[in-house]
Amino acid sequence: MQPYQFSQSQALLRRATQVIPCGIYGHFGPAPYTPLEHYPFFVEKAVGSRLWDVDGNEYIDYMCAYGPMVLGYGHPRVDEAYRKQMAEADIASLASTRMVELAELLVDLVPVADWAFFAKNGADVTNYAVMIARAATGRKKILAIGGGYHGTAPWMQAPGRHGCIAEDHEHVIRVAWNDVEAIEQAVGAHAGQIAAMIASPYHHPIFADNAAPADGYWSQVQQVLDREGILLISDDVRCGFRLHLGGSNEKYGFKPDLICFSKAIANGYALSALVGTDALKSDAAGVFHSGSFWYSAGSLAAAIACIEELKAIDGPALLEQQGRKLLDGMTQLAAAHGLDLRVTGEPAMPYLRLTDDPSLMLHQRFCGECTRRGAYFTSHHNWFLSTAHTDDDIQQTLDIVDESLKAIRRESSD
Ligand code: PMP
């Protein structure tokens, strides 16, 4: 097949750069994440597992909007619940019944949760969680994992980033993932000063292999934190509702004090949630946190429908099963072409890397070639499966992968 062209995307990106800083900001932006010549930048339509760009090219989408899409774009049950709610009330001057219903649903579903709170983006609730932990403990410092991501507030960004000042990081102590000794050292050096540790259930940095918790990691971490009166915040924004419906911590056998959800909670409608234990309920009540759009009833209704659907079809089991089919097929094809494709992270949201070129340029070319043939892959970030990815989608993807591996082999032998 003829690889795709992106002339409309490129023209629109040129227009965008005239009126929007960067043209497209953040993780949807072009290089260094996605090379201009091999990627689309603007969407025209998205249905089920597929999207179409402004040039009319069709893709099987393995980025799933970077996580929010979990049941397929335009899922009938979720969209119907949203439309029904929108016909009644969305943003109004009062909170909605849906807010109470969704809180009840989460309290029933998530073992750690005795209460729930809603906002819009992941960073709204990671920030709120830290504020609650500081209020509850009267301490300032936060332990975080180096290379972990919690949003774009200054304290969450990597030190040295443009627009951040050293003081933003004054009370953030970063330790390496899977290093209990480093946590012990930090706790010793800042005795009685650490309010909370914030971490994802497993480590999913960009441009690097993802890493599961080592055997015993979470139980050892919890022992240290409990001993020192330090709270544990699970940032489940990316993994939540993909790995386990009760919070991904249930899969890995630990019990945080607070869990942050967003992304997949409402199949693409804007919503985030913080859930927590009874012990923190009055501290949460005391921390002022709000936003103009945080009470939007449409997103809350969509979340109820999304979670009910994920329960009904056992979404996490399905995602793991389809992920495994894709990954087994891909690693076999790479081996047949004499290449080593390393898979890390969970099958529902894997990170892949061709190890034959440590600069990652070969891998970037491979992902670009797949994208130009209709399987939307990025090279820097973990991918996402959805329950809309069928066996036929996966077979078609494997055919694209085979073609793309041939193309990069041809290029390197030229
Ligand atoms: N935490 C994690 C683990 C994330 O992956 C993200 C988003 N990529 C966030 C927090 C921040 O979420 P948002 O971009 O919605 O603020």
Which superfamily, in CATH terms, is the homologous superfamily of the largest domain?
Type I PLP-dependent aspartate aminotransferase-like (Major domain)
Q: What letter string, H or E per element, gives the SSE order?
A: HEEEHHEHEEHEHEHEEHHHEEHEH
Q: Structural class of the secondary elements? A: alpha/beta
Number of helices: 12
The CATH topology name of the largest domain reads Aspartate Aminotransferase, domain 2
The kinds of small molecule bound in this structure are: 4'-deoxy-4'-aminopyridoxal-5'-phosphate
Low-confidence stretches: none
Number of domains: 2
User: Biggest β-sheet, characterized?
Assistant: 7 strands, mixed
Q: Overview of this structure, please?
A:
The chain has a seven-stranded mixed beta sheet with strand order 4-10-9-8-7-5-6, with helices on both faces. Strands 1-2-3-13 form a four-stranded mixed beta sheet. Strands 11-12 form a two-stranded antiparallel ribbon. It has two domains: 7-73 and 316-413, Aspartate Aminotransferase, domain 1 (Alpha-Beta Complex), CATH 3.90.1150; 76-313, Type I PLP-dependent aspartate aminotransferase-like (Major domain) (Aspartate Aminotransferase, domain 2, 3-Layer(aba) Sandwich), CATH 3.40.640. It has helices at 7-19, 76-88, 97-109, 122-137, 180-189, 217-228, 248-252, 281-286, 297-313, 315-336, 361-371, 391-413, and strands at 43-47, 50-53, 58-61, 115-119, 141-145, 172-175, 194-199, 231-235, 258-261, 272-276, 341-344, 351-354, 375-376. With 414 residues, it is an alpha/beta fold. 39% of the residues lie in helices and 14% in strands. It binds 4'-deoxy-4'-aminopyridoxal-5'-phosphate (PMP). Residues 121-123, 126, 149-151, 200, 235, 237-238, 262 line the site of 4'-deoxy-4'-aminopyridoxal-5'-phosphate. 4'-deoxy-4'-aminopyridoxal-5'-phosphate binds at residues 121-123, 126, 149-151, 200, 235, 237-238, 262.
